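Chapter summary example.
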Amino acid sequence: MRFDRTSSAAFAKVAESYERRRPSYKPELVAWVVERLGIVPETTIVDVGAGTGKLTRQLVPTGARVIAVEPLDEMRAQLQAVVPGAEVLAGSAEELPLPDASADVITAAAAIHWFDLDRALPEFHRVLRPGGALAVFSQGRDLRNDPLQAAVQEIVGGYLPDLDELGGWRGKLEASPLFGPPETVDMEFEQLLDAEGLAERMGTVSYIARLADGEQAEVLARIRELGEAQPESPFPFRYQTHVRVQSRL
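The structure predicted for these 249 residues follows.
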């Protein structure tokens, strides 16, 4: 579960903010995966932990059959509204609602750190056909090269897990006997935001979204002030985007 839920209405609001303010993925990175994996209209792609479909919508134009799997009702509602070209199913990485050997590609975007990989990786292996592959997209905030990102981290860092903990999935995936060695590509990416957009963007981080209302409002007010202090608006909010492809063994 990504958020501590208080009410359906409150969580629907988070899902709406997620759709408005979470960035999509750099088109060149998606194009690399499409070319590397030979995705064509006959391909079946399963986008796991799809959220509101930030990656899903970038896969639909390939003409492939795209199945988005998402456990949260409110996220699925947003996804169905904005990505009509995808099939949308309720389900989780650990229990995919799909038969054996039914997919050519499984994708996971900004979600794999939530998965129980001890259960999810065998499930991915089950659903992928022989010769299939797993493609994982991760979009980290660029704390080293972007002063604004570093300033935001000063505000929110105490609420977030250690970065090594968030990235622990990499070692587990590389050590899995079910998948081959990774091929990786890294690219820089930036999202243009204004002060309100910056605050709303950070409010979609689960560790901030689940704070008590008063504490959350204080954190987001400080972030909004950072945005208002920028010399221009909109301003860039920079990311380091990483993708890895690993073949099913």
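To summarize the output: The domain at 8-142+163-190+238-247 is CATH 3.40.50.150 (Rossmann fold).
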